[in-house]
Structure to design on (498 residues):
């Protein structure tokens, strides 16, 4: 069985025929070719596959592509404009919030989701918002610093 | 990329269509956020031929909450419930339980109905197909014995782990259940039949970790509702291995009323310990005075008697029983003195 999927992906309207049993993660990576979203644990425990659905961070490895019909989906590729990094991307780059980089797209999308609904989060709110993402390299300290830096950049007018 | 098994996805937008779809496909499975079901499908644990996604049903997405009553639709997301100002104010145990479920992304996806009907869990069940096949599967799937209790004579001990159920049970919640010919109401407590008793035969109202819900084929949980009790103080707490995202080692909901220096009403419920959420029996005997050391000791004895934690998780049963008592005593003390 297949369905016609209409959605807004990274700001652009798109229509695709998708099988009922296609996961959003594989729709993005294999069908559309956006490989920024990563496959991690495959079981909803690591957060590497996090994307924004109507600005809410969700796990694309546990969602069916057909279930985002009519929704707005943003992946890490949606960030930044004209070669300029977004606030969260700059935060992770400049404060060394990324080492091997595999978890980074997930962390960035969780952080962007946080800043879009709460532009001035407290330390506890940052930690709570990133609670569903795992990083085995950084020890998280640099990641928290990266998000704090992104908050400053966002206040100075850079898009999250 | 490993392909999922073939299935048909139905996305009804009205409850009527959902009921018809459920009646037309008795072998179908309801899907909310999919945070648990999709994992099980991916691991080859279940393979329903039809999935009915209820997240688009507008009637099931409402929260009606004020100081007299609370009604929550089955497709309300956990993040909506945890952040609802009236729920936080008048039914704190429900908001706290919702905020304690899994991680932030799961709460954005997961629904109230999904958490209430959450599949039971076990270290011998929630594993890959290869892992399960290596020990000839278990009772809950296609095997002959329960690896937790090999002499269980056909009884499965998988553990119920939903966090909302104990919270709502302390408030004597009722649920709405839709079927093809109407809607019936029943106590939430009666939804859970995972008694897992080896000394009595299994019936439609006494099941185990495998048959843990009393829903009949074709039925859908549509809502849960409670009436407020004036003066009731309530809270939820939970111990887990990874605090930001995990199923409970043990979760405890407590609601109580205080009159002067006396405890006059005490309700305690647990999750993560038995094949059903357990509302503690015999708490009336603990009321009437201040909850001093002796009362708390009696509470602990009730907990250890009624909580039947088995080796279904990475933490041993006796540890979870002790944790259950500690959490209950802490919450009772905190709520009484607040």
């Amino acid at each position: 069985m297949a369905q016609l999927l209409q959605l807004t992906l990274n700001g652009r309207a798109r229509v695709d025929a998708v099988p009922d049993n296609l996961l959003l993660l594989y729709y993005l990576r294999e069908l559309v070719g956006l490989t920024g979203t990563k496959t991690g644990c495959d079981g909803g425990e690591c957060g590497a596959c996090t994307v924004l659905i109507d600005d809410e961070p969700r796990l694309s490895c546990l969602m069916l592509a057909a279930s985002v019909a009519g929704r707005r989906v943003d992946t890490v590729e949606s960030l930044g404009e004209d070669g300029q990094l977004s606030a969260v991307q700059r935060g992770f780059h400049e404060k060394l919030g990324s080492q091997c980089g595999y978890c980074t797209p997930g962390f960035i999308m969780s952080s962007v989701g946080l800043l879009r609904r709460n532009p001035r989060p407290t330390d506890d709110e940052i930690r709570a918002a990133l609670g569903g993402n795992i990083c085995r390299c950084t020890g998280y300290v640099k990641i928290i610093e990266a998000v704090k830096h992104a908050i400053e950049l966002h206040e100075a007018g850079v898009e999250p | 990329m490993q392909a999922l098994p073939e299935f048909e996805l139905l996305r009804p937008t009205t409850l009527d269509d959902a009921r018809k779809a459920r009646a037309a496909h008795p072998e179908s499975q309801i899907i909310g956020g999919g945070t648990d079901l999709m994992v099980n499908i991916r691991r080859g644990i279940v393979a329903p031929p039809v999935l009915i996604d209820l997240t688009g049903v507008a009637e099931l997405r409402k929260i009606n909450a004020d100081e007299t009553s609370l009604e929550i639709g089955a497709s309300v997301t956990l993040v909506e419930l945890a952040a609802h100002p009236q729920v936080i104010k008048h039914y704190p145990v429900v908001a706290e339980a919702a905020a304690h479920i899994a991680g932030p992304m799961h709460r954005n996806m997961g629904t109230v109905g999904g958490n209430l009907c959450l599949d039971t869990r076990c270290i011998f069940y929630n594993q890959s197909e290869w892992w399960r096949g290596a020990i000839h599967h278990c009772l809950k799937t296609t095997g002959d014995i329960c690896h937790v209790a090999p002499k269980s004579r056909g009884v499965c001990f998988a553990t119920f782990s939903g966090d909302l159920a104990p919270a709502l049970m302390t408030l004597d919640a009722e649920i709405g259940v839709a079927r093809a010919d109407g809607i019936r109401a029943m106590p939430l407590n009666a939804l859970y039949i995972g008694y897992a008793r080896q000394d009595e035969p299994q019936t439609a109202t006494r099941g185990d970790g495998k048959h843990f819900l009393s829903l009949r084929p074709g039925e859908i949980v549509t809502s849960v509702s409670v009436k407020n009790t004036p003066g009731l103080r309530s809270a939820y707490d939970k111990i887990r291995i990874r605090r930001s995202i995990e199923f409970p080692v043990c979760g405890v909901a407590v609601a109580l009323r205080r009159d002067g220096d006396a405890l006059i009403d005490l309700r305690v419920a647990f999750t993560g310990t038995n094949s059903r959420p357990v509302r503690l029996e015999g708490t009336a005997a603990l009321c009437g005075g201040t909850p001093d050391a002796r009362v708390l000791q009696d509470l602990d004895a009730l907990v250890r008697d009624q909580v039947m934690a088995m080796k279904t998780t990475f933490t041993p049963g006796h540890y979870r029983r002790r944790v259950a008592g500690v959490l209950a005593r802490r919450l009772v003390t905190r709520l009484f003195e607040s």
In short: Chain A has a mean pLDDT of 97. Chain A has two domains: 2-78, 87-155. The two ends of chain A are 38 Å apart (CA to CA). The beta strands of chain A are 2-9, 12-19, 50-53, 56-59, 72-74.
